[in-house]
Structure formats: structure tokens, C-alpha cells
Amino acid sequence: MSARVASRLVTALSVCAVVGCSAPAGKYFARRGADLADCVEASAGLGLGAYARVKATDYAVIGCGAALCGPLVGWRGRYVPPISEGVYGFPFGRNAEVEASFSAAFPPDYIVDTRGPCFTSRKYFRKPGPGGRIAEQFWFGVSLAALFHARLGFNPAELADFVVGWFGWDMWGDDDWPSEPKETPKEPPKGETKT
Ligand SMILES: [Ca+2]
After folding, report:
1. Ligand 1 center to residue 33 CA distance, Å?
2. C-alpha 175 – ligand 1 centre gap (Å)
3. N- or C-end of the chain: fewer Cβ atoms within 10 A?
4. Minimal CA–CA distance to 158: which of 120, 193, 128, 194?
């Protein structure tokens, strides 16, 4: 590593520390790790039927076939990965994904419905974080089912949130999502007064 590169690296880390690391170090790095985890998804399991889909954001989706998939195991960061999903599509006509991430198949977590290749709507039964509803429009990925089901995805919008997060910008407002339940102050026993 040249002295010039090393100097730039030290400068960048210093800026990061001053600008972005106002939270305690452990919390700061935990947030960066959670942001990074949101960038990718991968799931696999059984897939009854035949189906294939390619997606380049919500505005370019082509699916073909139909399948019921599950049980599934997978990863999707703070977006909860499904344990089952129903999918069907007609190329350039319609594509739909119905996902459930818990044992009961209904209600599902959400329904993603694309008409034509680029008019996508999402109906939520369990809403993601505030920025997540914007960021999840930008998944790139593939989904295949033919007895075996596999799904892979990458989200550049979440990658952008990860990168700028080092400099103190929480682009999607998800650094503290899911939020922790607030503690309610305990009432003192009768006869005692608060000090
Ligand atoms: Ca973030």
C-alpha cells in the first residue's frame, strides 16, 4: 500500500469516526451490520409446480408459471424471510407473489402484484420499516421452482444505505428498526413517594 493510499484511508476513517460515529461504538457497528444484512436475500426449499421470475426493481418484473413453495429457509436481513410463498406469472401480463413468514399461511405478510412488467403494487399485512417500503422496490433477483425452489436477490438501495450509514446518514431511517418496546415507569407502592 502506497503512502498516498494509506493517507487517504486514514483520512476517510477519521472523517467516518468524527461524522458518523456519534453513537456508542458497539451500537454504531451493529447498525452498519444490520444495514449490510439488508442488502441480500437467499431462500430455498420445496417448490410444488414450475415457475421462473426475473426482477430488476419493481419496474421490470417478468414471471412465468405457478408454484406453491415451502417450507423455506433463508435470509433477508431485517426483512423477514418467508417460510412459504405462492407465486404465479404470465410473461408481460401479470406476476404475483404471496408470502407468509410464520406457520399460519394466512394472513400472509404481503402480496406483490405486478401488472404488465412494470406496474407493481404491494399490499402489506405486516409492514416493514418506514424506509424499507421505499427500498424494497429496488430488489434485483431471480426465483425458480421445479420441485426445488430457490430465490436470490440483491438490493442496491439498501447497499447505498449501508455505505452512507458510515458517514452518519441513515438514508432509510432503519437504524433503530425494529424499534425496541418502551419501558413503562413503575408506579411506586401506595404509601411511598417518588424521590
Ligand atoms: Ca440505515
Report:
1. 10
2. 4
3. C
4. 128
What's the CA gap between 18 and 8, in Å, rounded?
A: 15
Torsions phi, psi for 11 (to 5 deg)? -60, -45
Rounded to an integer, what is the distance from CA 182 to the centroid of its chain? 24
Q: What is the pLDDT of residues 92-124, one digit of tens each?
A: 999 999 988 765 555 677 789 999 999 999 887
Q: Give per-residue pLDDT as tens, 55-90.
A: 999 999 999 999 999 899 999 888 878 889 999 999
Distances in Å between the Cα of 71 and the Cα atoms of 57, 66, 159, 160, 189 are: 26, 16, 28, 32, 50
pTM for the full predicted model: 0.77
CA pair distance 126, 173, nearest whole angstrom: 18
Are the C-beta atoms of 99 and 108 separated by less than 8 Å?
yes
Spatial distance between the Cα atoms of 72 and 84, rounded to a whole number of angstroms: 6
Centroid of ligand 1 to alpha carbon of 106 (angstroms): 30
